[in-house]
Amino acid sequence: MRNDLIQLLCDKSFKYSDTPSFRLVSGRMSRYYVNCKPTTLHPLGMYLAGHLVFEAVADLELDAVGGMTFGADPIAVATAFASQLQQRPVKAFSIRKTRKDHGIIRWIEGDLEPGARVAVIEDVVTTGGSTLQAIARAREEGLQVERVVVLVDRQEGGMDAIRRQVPDTLAIVSRDELLAHLGREPFGDD
Known about the structure:
The model has no long low-confidence stretch (mean pLDDT 94). The two termini are 30 Å apart. The chain has helices at 2-12, 37-40, 43-57, 73-85, 129-140, 158-163, 175-181; strands spanning 14-16, 22-23, 29-30, 32-34, 64-68, 91-95, 108-109, 117-125, 144-153, 169-174. It has 7 helices and 10 strands. The chain has a domain at 48-175: Rossmann fold (3-Layer(aba) Sandwich), CATH 3.40.50.
């Protein structure tokens, strides 16, 4: 399954250039660009990501998986679906970018109560900033973050930053694995 996900990511989500050609959210230019949404919103991608992320958390007694909208949403839903197929249901949740200001004012959408044990998931990590924000918001809502699972690690220091908040952090696929699949050598630092 993992090799199939790497192939799909290379086909739909991963771009590279010999020179820094892709502007990142930070404004920095990079040789790599990873947009997981074409993969995670694809039927096969949902199937693969959901099953692989569920496998990555199956050893824990979790109530739910989720992360910052929109990148984590399709992965969380796919993981919840895969968990039900395995008869080990884990709910999905989504963390808003801005706090809901009406009704029940909160950061998180989903069927969760304070004290719930969760895994925060992310589609791509570069610096780890949005994942750290998701962890902080989950904790602010009283959730216990047990693990972080990242679909693609760009290998630019973000995983280390996340591990300082949640030591149990892992990636399903790395940038170097995507490059190796394409027969390319890593460029080193951007």
